[in-house]
Design brief:
The complex is a heterodimer of chains A (227) and B (432).
Chain A lengths: L11 H27 L16 H11 L13 E3 L9 H5 L5 E8 L4 E10 L18 E3 L14 E3 L26 H6 L24 H4 L7
Chain B lengths: L1 H11 L3 H41 L15 H10 L11 H19 L16 H22 L3 H32 L4 H6 L14 H17 L24 H26 L5 E2 L12 E2 L1 H6 L5 H31 L5 H29 L5 H6 L3 H33 L12
Antiparallel strand pairs in B: 1-2
The chains are: A alpha+beta (227), B mainly alpha (432).
C-alpha cells in the first residue's frame, strides 16, 4: 500500500515537500501501530493473585504458537529424586557445595539391610548448579523444568522425597547391561504436591518478631485472589 | 470569573459596599479552583498515561494501589513528598531553591487564561494569548536556573538544551497562535471561542487547509515547548541522567513533574480553544429568541440570568464539551509519547528552523491574503444571510473538514490493518 518515496531522485524543493509528506505519513503509521496494540489484550500473567492455576496450560499454549518461548528440557529447575532407582550412594550429598541435600541411612537390625529414612533437598537453599546430577550413577537425581512453588514460608521449600520415615525406601541395586527405569521428569515433585500454586501464597505475611498488627497501606489495598 | 461575579451582583441586587469584597472573593476562587483542577489533572493524566503506555507495550500498567490503580498517583506523590529535600553542597543554594518554583509559577500563571467552558475562566484578558506566550517563557528561566545552580554537568546540559529548544520553538508556536489571532480578530480567549461555531466545520482549524497546517505546527511546537516526548531532550534519561532535575529530590522534584503535566493541560486546552471550537455547544432552544442550532458562545451563556435553567445547563454542557476535547488532545499527546523516539539535537533544531518556522510564516502570509477574499463566516451566518462569498467560505470549510475525515478514516484503516496482520501469539486467551 505504501510506496517508498525515493528522496534522491528529484530536486531540492520536491524533496523538501516529499520529506514533510513522508514524515507525516510515517508518524500516522506509527500511531496506528501503537493504537492497534492498545486495542489488544496484554500478555502479562498477574502471578499469583489473578491467576487461574493453569500456568502449565499457558506454557503449552505458548509451545503451540511459538517454539521459542517454551522452557527447554535442560532447564535447571527444581531438583527431583526418583527414590525407586536411588542406590543410596550419597554421591550427590558429597557433591553438593552448600549442603542442601541431607540423606539418612539406617540399618534394619534383623534383616541385615540398609534403608533410607530421609532424603531432603532444601530448594530454598539450592543454587541450581547441577553438581549433584553429574555423579549420580542411576540418574535418580535430576533437574526438572518445574519452577513454581511460591509459599509464604521458607520451610515449605524443603522437598522431602521420603515423606514418611516409617515407610523407608530400600536402595536400588544397579543391574548390569539393563536400562534403568526412570519416572517421567517432574512427576515425582507433582505427586509430592511440591509444585503448583500453594494456597498459602495468598496468606498475609507472618508478623515480624515483636510486631503486633500491620497498618500498612499494602494491607488495606492488598490485591484479592480471583476465585 | 468576573462575568460570573457580575451576574451574581446583578441577580442578588448586592449593595455597592459589598461588591469589592465579592470581587476579591471571586478572584480567590478563580485562583484556587484552576489550581486544584491542574493538580488533579496531573495525577489522573500520569496514571492514564502509564496505563495507556502499558497497553501499548502489551503490559497492564499500574493496577495495584486501589481498584485498577486509581490512586497510584497519590501514593507516588506521597512517597516523593516524604523524601529529603537534598541540596548539593556545591550547588548555588538560592538559585537551586528558586528554580523549580519559577518553573511551576510560569505554568500556573498561564492557567489563569485557560477557560473551563462557558463563561468560566480565571481572567478573560483582552491580551490573553500574548499573556500566555509571555508567562510560559518563565518556565525556561526556572529550568535554566536549576540546571545551572545544580553544579552538575548533566543538569547544565539539560538546562542549556532546554533553553535552546524552548527559545527556538517559541517562534513557530507564537506564529501558529498568531494565525488564530488573525482569524478571530481578537487576543481574548473568550473572544476567540466566540468567533467559532459548535459544528466541526465552524471550528477555526477548518477555516481553510492553512489553518489546519497552523494547528499541526502549533501541536508540534507546543510539544517541544512542554518538553514532551519526542522533544524530551532536556531530560533525556538515556543520555543525561535526568537532565535539569538530576540533583533534585523531594517536593522540588515533584514541582518539575507538576510543571510538565500542567503544561500538557495548558497546551491541550489552548489547542482546543484556538483551533477546535473550545466549549462551544448549540443553544438547544434554551436561549430566548435564538435558533436552537445557533452557537452558545461564552458571551451568550453569561448574558443569561443566573437563576435560569438555561444558564446552568449550558454552562455544564459547555464544561463537559471542553473537558472531552481537552482529554482527547491530551491522550493524543500521550500516544505520541509512546510512539515516537526522541529526536537528536540537530534534528530538533532542523525541524524548527527549516520546516516549522518558514511554513508557519508562509501560512500566516497566505491567510492574510486569503482573509481579504474569504470571510470567516460560519454555517449559521450563512443560514441567516446568504451571499456568494459566504458560500465559498463554507465550501472551503467543508472541504477542509472532509480532509480531516479522510485522514481519520485512513488512520482507522491502518489500525484495523495492524490488528488483522498481527502475529498469532498476541491472541492467547488467558485469564487476567
Amino acid at each position: 500500500m505504501s510506496v517508498a518515496i525515493n528522496l534522491e531522485s528529484r530536486g531540492a524543493v520536491w524533496r523538501y515537500f516529499a520529506g514533510i509528506w513522508t514524515a507525516l505519513k510515517n508518524v500516522g503509521e506509527g500511531m496506528a501501530v501503537t493504537m492497534s496494540w492498545m486495542l489488544r489484550r496484554p500478555i502479562t500473567v498477574q502471578y499469583p493473585d489473578r491467576y487461574d492455576g493453569k500456568l502449565n496450560q499457558f506454557m503449552h499454549d505458548l509451545e503451540k504458537v511459538d517454539q521459542g518461548q517454551k522452557l527447554p528440557q535442560v532447564y535447571r529447575g527444581f531438583l527431583e529424586v526418583d527414590m525407586d532407582v536411588c542406590s543410596a550412594c550419597q554421591a550427590c550429598e558429597r557433591a553438593c557445595p552448600i549442603d542442601c541435600i541431607s540423606i539418612a541411612i539406617e540399618k534394619v537390625p534383623d534383616e541385615r539391610k540398609r534403608v533410607m529414612t530421609r532424603f531432603d533437598i532444601d530448594l530454598g537453599k539450592c543454587m541450581y548448579c547441577g553438581l549433584c546430577v553429574d555423579p549420580c550413577p542411576t540418574a535418580a537425581i535430576l533437574h526438572t523444568p518445574e519452577f513454581e512453588a511460591t509459599s509464604q514460608y521458607v520451610e515449605n521449600l524443603v522437598a522431602r522425597f521420603v515423606p514418611d520415615p516409617r515407610k523407608p525406601f530400600t536402595p536400588y541395586k544397579i543391574p548390569k547391561g539393563q536400562e534403568i527405569p526412570r519416572k517421567q521428569l517432574g512427576s515425582v515433585l507433582r505427586e509430592l504436591g511440591f509444585t503448583g500454586l500453594k494456597k498459602d501464597a495468598f496468606a498475609p505475611l507472618p508478623p515480624f518478631p515483636g510486631q503486633k498488627r500491620s497498618f500498612g497501606l499494602h494491607a488495606v489495598f492488598a490485591p484479592r485472589p480471583r476465585p | 470569573m468576573q462575568g460570573i461575579v457580575d451576574s451574581i451582583i446583578q441577580y442578588f441586587q448586592i449593595a455597592p459596599v459589598w461588591t469589592q469584597l465579592l470581587y476579591v472573593l471571586g478572584a480567590g476562587v478563580a485562583i484556587i479552583l484552576p489550581f486544584i483542577y491542574v493538580l488533579l489533572f496531573a495525577g489522573v493524566y500520569i496514571l492514564l498515561e502509564r496505563r495507556i503506555g502499558g497497553r501499548m507495550q502489551s503490559r497492564i500498567g499500574p493496577n495495584r494501589v486501589g481498584p485498577q490503580g486509581v490512586i497510584q498517583w497519590f501514593a507516588d506523590a506521597l512517597k516523593v513528598l516524604t523524601k529529603e529535600d537534598l541540596i548539593p553542597a556545591t550547588a548555588d543554594s538560592p538559585l537551586f531553591r528558586i528554580g523549580p518554583l519559577l518553573a511551576v509559577v510560569g505554568v500556573m500563571l498561564s492557567v489563569a487564561v485557560v477557560p473551563f467552558g462557558g463563561p468560566w475562566i480565571g481572567a478573560d484578558l483582552n491580551v490573553g494569548l500574548l499573556y500566555l506566550l509571555s508567562v510560559t517563557s518563565l518556565v525556561v528561566c526556572g529550568i535554566l536556573m536549576s540546571g545551572w545552580a545544580s553544579n552538575s554537568k548533566w543538569a547544565l546540559f539539560g538546562g542549556l538544551r532546554s533553553t535552546a529548544q524552548i527559545v527556538s520553538y517559541e517562534i513557530p508556536h507564537a506564529t501558529a497562535l498568531l494565525v488564530v489571532v488573525l482569524l478571530a480578530g481578537t487576543m481574548s480567549i473568550q473572544g476567540i471561542i466566540g468567533s467559532q461555531g459548535w459544528l466541526p466545520w465552524d471550528w477555526l482549524a477548518m477555516h481553510s487547509p492553512f489553518a489546519l497546517i497552523a494547528l499541526v505546527i502549533y501541536f508540534i511546537s507546543s510539544l517541544a515547548e512542554g518538553s514532551r516526548v519526542p522533544f524530551d531532550l532536556p531530560e533525556a534519561e538515556s543520555e543525561l541522567v535526568a537532565g535539569y532535575n538530576t540533583e533534585y529530590s523531594g517536593w522540588r522534584f515533584l514541582l518539575f513533574f507538576l510543571t510538565e503535566l500542567a503544561n500538557v493541560w495548558v497546551m491541550s486546552a489552548i489547542a482546543v480553544v484556538g483551533f477546535l471550537g473550545g466549549g462551544n455547544i448549540p443553544t438547544l432552544g434554551l436561549v430566548d429568541g435564538v435558533a436552537w442550532y445557533a452557537t452558545a458562545t461564552p458571551a451568550v451563556i453569561s448574558a443569561l440570568p443566573l437563576a435560569s435553567f438555561g444558564f446552568w445547563a449550558l454552562l455544564l454542557l459547555s464544561f463537559a464539551t471542553m473537558m472531552c476535547k481537552c482529554w482527547v488532545v491530551a491522550i493524543v499527546i500521550s500516544q505520541v509519547r509512546w510512539t515516537m523516539p526522541r529526536f537528536r539535537v540537530d534534528q530538533m533544531m532542523l525541524l524548527c528552523w527549516k520546516y516549522l518556522v518558514p511554513i508557519s510564516f508562509a501560512v500566516l502570509l497566505v491567510l492574510m491574503v486569503l482573509m481579504r477574499f474569504i470571510p470567516l463566516a460560519d454555517s449559521a451566518a450563512l443560514v441567516a444571510a446568504f451571499s456568494g462569498s459566504k458560500l465559498v467560505a463554507l465550501l472551503v470549510r467543508l472541504g477542509t473538514t472532509a480532509l480531516c475525515v479522510v485522514a481519520v478514516a485512513w488512520y482507522i484503516g491502518r489500525v484495523a490493518f495492524a490488528i488483522r496482520n498481527a502475529h498469532d501469539k498476541l491472541f492467547i486467551k488467558f485469564a487476567l
